[in-house]
Amino acid sequence: MDVHELLADERAVSPVIGVILMVAITVILAAVVGSFVFGIGGQVQPSSPNANFQFDYEADGSTYNVTARHSGGDTISADETVQLATPAGTENFTGDVSAGKTAMVSGVAPETTVRVIWVSANGEDSSVLAEEQTPA
After folding, report:
1. If you count DSSP H runs as helices and E runs as strands, how many of each does the chain have, helices first?
2. d(Cα 82, Cα 97) in Å, to the nearest integer?
3. Would you say 134 and 66 are in contact if contact means Cβ atoms under 8 Å apart?
4. pLDDT at residue 3 greater than cutoff 80
């Protein structure tokens, strides 16, 4: 057998490459179909808005009047809920929530956690946009 003839024989190269490509395509196709069948590919979670809130505390005897003010970032649509939540009560922001909008709750005890909470329009998603503690 001649070595030059053996090295020059390329008859099996094309079928081997073809089989490798077919296997690769099959694996990729199976992964894509599987991700949609098992619900991985079709679910995109809505993200909460990127908004900044500032808290102001006004002493009222032994408690505080807490005001949350939208100080920048995304404008939040009126069909979504944005609320100032405290143990003393909850107050919703009204209309579109943009820079300058406020909500206020009275009678909040010292060293109490207050939060601005966002709830999506469909009510399925929520997020804490801001959190702080009242002064001591």
Report:
1. 2, 7
2. 8
3. yes
4. no
Q: Can you tell me which residue has the tokens 């099996």? A: 12
State the pLDDT at residue 65.
96
Q: Say how far apart CA 52 and CA 91 lie, in whole Å.
A: 17
Residues 37-87: tens digit of each pLDDT? 777 655 555 688 999 999 999 998 999 999 999 999 999 999 999 999 999
| The two three-digit tokens of residue 68, written as one number | 């949350």
Tokens matching residue 103? 């909500």
Q: What SS3 state is found at 98?
A: coil
Q: Give exposure, 41-65, as e/b (b: 16+ Cβ within 10 Å).
A: eeeeeeebbebebebebeeeeebbe
User: SS3 for 40?
Assistant: coil
Count the neighbouring beta carbons within 10 Å of the beta carbon of residue 18: 10
**52 phi and psi, to 5 degrees?**
-105, 140
Q: How far is Cα 100 from Cα 69, in angstroms, rounded to an integer?
A: 6
Residue type, 2: D
Angle (CA) 105 109 113, round 5°: 75
Cα–Cα dist 88/106, whole Å = 7
- Residue 80 neighbours by CB distance under 10 Å: 20
